[in-house]
């Protein structure tokens, strides 16, 4: 089962998850240090950061390279990037040939042209104005509101990458239980 973190004031304040890529970069930079404060960390599941493969990947790439010595860019095509502990990063698939892609590009292009109250969708907008709406409004008013009829088949490759992370974490985090340990 996959669960998504619901944005809240707690996730914003504690995890610093605001403003998309900037918040993701902060989480990547501070994740292992934040966990040092906890005595009990069962870490039964991986934590997966899904990021657009567009210009925003540059700031994430710098953090990943400086902290974990891993190379991530618009053109790298790894299924996922294991950063530390149970923290992973998955990019929106790059396409063939590799190119800048954001998660919205996985939807049917017709959905991206949906006009709401006379406003058009602009994936680069953080907020609404008189002529355009951004990703949050798109997610709520276009995708969530029409979830039963939206074609999600374009997400197949991304979901395969998430499955790859789950399999990798299950394989590499397994701790023998007392019933499987032999004396």
The span between the termini is 35 Å
> What is the typical, i.e. mean, pLDDT?
85
Structural classification: alpha/beta
The helix/strand series, from N terminus to C terminus, equals HHEHEEEEHH
Strand content: 5-15%
Count of DSSP strands: 5
Give the radius of gyration: 18 Å
Biggest sheet, in brief? 3 strands, mixed
Share in helix: 25-40%
- Name the shape in a single word: globular
Strand order of the largest sheet: 1-3-2
Point out poorly predicted stretches: 176-183
Number of helices: 5
Spell out the blueprint of helices and strands.
Elements: H1 9-15, H2 21-35, E1 47-51, H3 57-68, E2 81-84, E3 87-91, E4 120-121, E5 132-133, H4 135-143, H5 156-172
Parallel strand pairs: 1-3, 4-5
Antiparallel strand pairs: 2-3
Supply database-style keywords.
183 residues, alpha/beta, 5 helices, disordered C terminus
Report on this structure.
The protein has 183 residues and is α/β, with parallel strands linked by helices. It has 5 helices and 5 strands; from the N terminus they run ααβαββββαα. The strands form 2 sheets. Strands 1-3-2 form a 3-stranded mixed β-sheet, with helices on both faces. Strands 4-5 form a two-stranded parallel sheet. A hairpin with a 2-residue loop joins strand 2 and strand 3. The longest helix is centred in the C-terminal third of the chain and has 17 residues, at 156-172. The radius of gyration is 18 Å and the shape is globular.
């Amino acid at each position: 089962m996959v669960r998504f973190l619901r944005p809240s004031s707690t996730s914003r304040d504690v995890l610093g998850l605001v403003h998309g890529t900037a918040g993701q970069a902060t989480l990547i930079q501070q994740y292992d240090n934040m966990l040092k404060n906890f005595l009990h960390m069962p870490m039964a599941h991986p934590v997966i950061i899904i990021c657009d493969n567009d210009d925003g990947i540059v700031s994430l790439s710098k953090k990943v390279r400086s902290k974990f010595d891993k190379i991530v860019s618009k053109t790298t095509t790894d299924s996922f990037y294991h950063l530390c502990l149970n923290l992973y990063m998955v990019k929106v698939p790059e396409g063939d040939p590799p190119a800048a892609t954001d998660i919205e590009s996985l939807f049917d292009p017709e959905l991206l042209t949906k006009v709401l109250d006379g406003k058009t969708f602009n994936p680069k907008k953080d907020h609404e104005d008189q002529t355009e709406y951004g990703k949050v409004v798109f997610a709520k008013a276009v995708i969530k509101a029409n979830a039963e009829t939206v074609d999600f088949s374009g997400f197949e490759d991304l979901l395969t990458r998430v499955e790859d992370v789950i399999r990798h974490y299950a394989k590499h985090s397994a701790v023998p239980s007392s019933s499987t340990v032999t004396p």
